[in-house]
Amino acid sequence: MGIKKSRLLNRILMYTLNIFLAVVFLAPLVWMMVSSVKPEVNIFADMTSVRAFLPISGSLDNYQSILEKGEIVRTMLNSLYYVTIMIALGLIVNSMCGFALAKLQFRGRDFLFSLIVALIIIPLESIILPLYFMIFKVKMLNTFSALIAPFTANCFSIFLFRQFFVDIPDSLLEAAYIDGASPLKAFFKIVLPLSFPVYATVLILQFIEHWGDFLWPVLVTDDRTKTVQLGLQTLFTAPPVHYGPIFAALTLSTLPVVVMFIFFQKYYVQGIAQSGIKG
Question: What is the pTM of this model?
């Protein structure tokens, strides 16, 4: 009985802690969404009470105001366009690289993997000027290619794919090779169908990272190719500043990330867990 009570107490404490952390992390998101349907005067009047989280006297006027301008919709479509292409290309390139590092034998493989792991820690800020000059030299400034090309290959994504593929039994691939399959065919016919969790994980991580890009787009885009984060930034700098429409724009820009995570969260957790089994 003592062991059962201890387990029950531990479970209660765990759930209590999880609920508390969920409230802490969700509170800003809920406040933002509730504020997006309030008149500006009510946003600040309710700030110090629980009414800040209640959609009292709510309306869609803020959304109507921001949508009539059209800027946030255009920049969201720009971001969705380039992020979709980048991730689609990145899933192919990074997964094939991870497969080669995990299952193919060639000279320098371990050194190459160590180099890729080492490159993960290099921040964008340390290479952004040389990268900018490269984009300038090849005349890709103010194009979507400037947003896509430098970040299609991603060291952390390669690492995740490699770690996941290591756990796929070699016997499956050996059977395919005996039947006459090439490594490329074995990858697409055997490895890829078994790897949806890690693909979903990389998809979510890359989408969140590049949907929130600000520093690089501000250097290489113009008004035509402006991304959603630059569109949001103009709401704070172009007077007059109205916080109701700003919260509405922030809510709209957050929805794609939330929806994607809701649909792929099961595979995201599974992929993260399985990618860290072996080193």
Answer: 0.84
